[in-house]
Amino acid sequence: MCEVEGDYNGLECNQKIPVPTLNRKCMKCKEGAAVLIIRVNDAFCRACFKEYFIHKFRAMLGKNRVIFPQEKVLLAVSGGAASCSMLSQVQEGLSREAPKKLRFMPGIIYIDDGGACGRSAEERQRSNALLKSIFTETGFPYFIVSLEQVFSLPASVLVPGTSDPDPSNLSYKQAVDQYVKEKQTLTEENVASAVAQLSIGDSVYSHKHKLALERLFSSLKTLTAKEDMLQTLRQHLILHIARENGYSKVMMGDSCSRLAVRLLSNIALGRGAALASDTGFSDPRYGDVVIVRPMRDYSSKEIAFYSRMFNVPSVFISGLDTKTHDKASIQRLTESFVTNLQSDFPSTVSTIYRTSEKLHTVMPPQSQSAEPASKCLLCLCTLDTKEDCTTEYEFCVSA
User: Fold this and answer.
1) Mean of the pLDDT values across residues 352-360?
2) From CA 111, how far away is CA 234, in angstroms rounded?
3) Is the dihedral of CA 77, 88, 245, 173 positive or negative?
4) Separation of CA 368 from chain center
5) How far is CA 20 from CA 24, 100, 328, in A?
6) How far apart are CA 149 and CA 205, in angstroms?
7) Transmembrane segments in this chain: where (predicted)?
8) Model confidence band, residue 315 (pLDDT cutoffs 50, 70, 90)
């Protein structure tokens, strides 16, 4: 037992234990002092980390080649660090100093889901004003849409659009060649017309739609169902705005940490058949609008470091799961499980993420006379149940 007058080899109770200092060189340039360590042996200086972060974004777009030159791309920004970092990368790629400029035409959309998350009108106005200032500085057209407007959408949003390829864009190389030929220097008139085309949408909603949204979410008894419904409504609203304004691609800011949590939670929710679409780089299930995830190679740690070191503006907006306990919902429990496991085993997220890369949707062979596969009205994924099998099972049970 401890004694008051015991000898502790000269150590005093208030004596501080020396903390080891970081004295490592950058793994890339071998000259600069490392300012952060992403993984065990991945130490970067400030300049090399910025170059690494930018190259990762460009490599993801260049490897997949699904975004063509002069194509309109809608950036879904929620105000968080991941989506704002994605917006920063697009700005960086379109700047004049970029060695290989991005060639698409971006727009920004923010879905104000304060009515579903219980935020007051003052909080919603404050967050919208902060995001407006960020969006205005980019010079891109932007849309701020309230979630209540989902009740004014036409019934056609529940039907996937046609995905017939544009004859003018038969291949990526042809699109690049056409872009180079048509490239011209912007005159003052072109600049003025481009600024005049900025679509600034205010988060306006009617009282009737506000009450309808409140009734919808009050009818959902669990936080799991509310988060799932919020994701579905937000997705349909983004797709509708993209179709209305001629955007054929939508960029989401999902990181690999977020996708790892989504993969496990979707399995728990019985959505295993749609994992390839929910976690892959491109999601073509909606036909005329394709969702892409260029941030899926970044961990939440890399995004947090980049946002802090290079002052990427972001806005914290409370959600449904803000200040909830770990067992409040399936999504929240999965996130807590993966995060805690990642702190002890640093390869947890990467292992789950690499598993998601191997997933793909198996399309059964269909003849011309066969009827098209049935799809879910909410997520538009192909149903993974067959009516004949269910009927046969019920017959065997009844017998």
Assistant:
1) 80
2) 7
3) negative
4) 37
5) 12, 41, 39
6) 6
7) none
8) very high
